[in-house]
Amino acid sequence: MVDQELTWQGAVARWDRGLFDMVARRHWPGADRVLPRLGRAANHGVLWGGTAAAIAVFGSAGARKAAVRGMASLALASATINTVGKWSVRRARPRLDGVPAVRQLSTQPRTTSFPSGHSASAFAFAAGLALESPGWGAVVAPVAASVAFSRVYTGVHYPSDVVAGAALGVAAGFVVRRLARDAQEARAVPGDERTAVGAPALPDGEGLTVVVNTGSGTAARAGLDVLRSRLPKAEVVECGGAELAAELAAAASRATVLGVCGGDGTINAAASAALRAGVPLAVFPGGTLNHFALDLGLAGAADTCHAVAAGEAVHIGVGRFTPGPGGGESGYFLNNFSIGAYPELLGHRLRWGPRIGGGPAALLAAWKVLRAQRPVRLRLAGRPRSVWLLFAGNGTYHGTGPTPRRRDNLGEGLLDLRLVYGGGRPGPRLLAAAFAGPLSRSPVHTATRLRSLRIGDIPSGTPLAYDGEYAEAPAALVLEELPDALTVYRSRT
Predict the structure, then answer these.
(1) What is the dihedral of CA 20, 24, 27, 31, to 10 degrees?
(2) DSSP one-letter code for 85
(3) Mean pLDDT per 10-residue interval, the chain, length 493 residues
(4) Contact between residue 452 and residue 325 where contact means Cβ atoms under 8 Å apart
(5) What is the pLDDT of residue 67?
(6) d(CA 349, CA 352)
(7) CB-based contact 389:340 (threshold 8 Å)
């Protein structure tokens, strides 16, 4: 047995050295100038950090999330290689016999050879990126493969070192994805919303019509796969863009239960359709932002499928804004409503994003708002006010500041109102408000809970935002909370 093991190890070593020598002898036009430099650029993860930064600046919100996953995967792979891999197999670096001097690095690595840390980092970043954003992963993958190959080309690693490093990197990407999913499931904790008695149970999905926003990306596609396997008789309608509102209204008019797969903006449109049609709503999280689903306690599509099959649902409150006479239709919000700095920022970002990219648009919008924005003068409950920001949450949010993030209960039936008063510049005011305690009062910030609020004398052209959507505010409106207005499927456990 020992002799067989030694023979096998010898065969692998001979294959490794033979392939190494073959690469050393072969000449690729231009590679002598490109590959050594590419390998040096990847030292200490600099190449991948720069790539992640570029994606964050020029990419969408989903791309930024993918870049973070890529860097997290790289960090895990690097830590594993440096603490376990390098010291478990103390393999000497290859001899440089036959490697042209023009390819050799000016400073040779002093660590052990197996596995390749550069290959692990490259493939970890590419895998983490691809698992969240396949498009960006396809762009980065050839660069990652080139970095890995450069380690053999420059004579600092055997081919098996590179293969092992790449495998460890890909494994790190999958581990990070799993950890992220576990963290999301841990965050999605059901609240104390009132149980909805009599919600239809649809064991095979018959009577459920699900409208899928095709613009929501890979998350929506994954949710759709789960839906079709768990509830095979559900009707699925895939659409996007201008067709979405009409498809939701049509689906709500014919379905026993209206389902939706997408992010917060899509879910808001579906909730509005369900409220007008008087049908329950089944939410399959599948967008870039899923604040509502997480606050409700839905970790993913599988949770919703279980609830629909079992007929388990809860009543939740819904925020509504109703324009004054001649002001148009009412609108609903599941998360929050705002007037002031945030809608201005959102409007600039939506206008510039298609031309210069999401990241630069967000930075430019913030700079413009903080530099040039003026407070909004309006009437609140009959009293004149000047505000930088009016924020109304559907249910009480945790945390200090004017725009907190997390709720425990969507069924309490109250609006969480936060005001940042005008005066001075918006930047200092918003920063000062961020340090004010919850439901506290300060010279710049007020927070309270109420059932309704009348807003009047809104200047023409003032924007408003609700659940990430942008619109122009009417001259007057009423904000109100509608307790137990909507039935939403959610498991009891």
Answers:
(1) 80
(2) I
(3) 48 73 75 79 86 79 80 86 66 74 72 82 91 86 89 80 88 83 53 86 95 73 81 91 90 95 89 96 80 84 92 95 83 92 70 59 61 80 88 82 69 88 62 49 72 94 87 92 95 73
(4) no
(5) 86
(6) 5
(7) yes
Burial tier of 335 (Cβ tally within 10 Å: 0-12, 13-18, 19+): buried
Spatial separation of the C-alpha atoms in residues 308 and 304, rounded to whole Å: 6
Rg over alpha carbons for the chain, rounded to the nearest Å, is 28
CA dist 183 and 397 (Å) reads 20
- Residue listed under structure tokens 């506290």: 440
Residues 160-198 pLDDT 10s: 888 888 998 899 888 888 777 655 544 545 557 899 988
The one-letter amino acid code at 91 reads R
Residue type present at position 417: L
Nearest CA among 167, 175, 164, 162 for reference residue 69: 175
The H or E element containing residue 192 is: none
Rounded CA-CA distance 112/87 in Å is 8
* pTM for the structure as a whole: 0.61
Cα–Cα distance measured from residue 23 to residue 223, given in angstroms and rounded to the nearest whole number: 45
Distance CA 16, CA 115 (A): 13
- State the amino acid at position 34 in one-letter form: V
Decide if 348 contacts 368 (C-beta within 8 A).
yes
Give backbone dihedrals phi and psi of 211, rounded to 5 degrees, phi first. Answer: -100, 120
DSSP for residue 381: T
With a CB cutoff of 8 Å and minimum separation 6, the contacts of 149 are 35, 162
CA angle 371, 372, 375 (to 5 degrees): 115
Residue listed under structure tokens 């969408």:
60
The answer to whether 238 touches 212, Cβ cutoff 8 Å, is yes
Three-class SS state of 27: coil
AA identity, residue 457: D
Tens digits of residue pLDDT in 13-25:
677 777 777 777 7
DSSP assignment, residue 441?
Answer: B
Matching residue, tokens 């081919």: 159
CA neighbours closer than 13 Å in the CB half-sphere of residue 161: 29
CB-CB contact of 81 with 104 (8 Å)? no
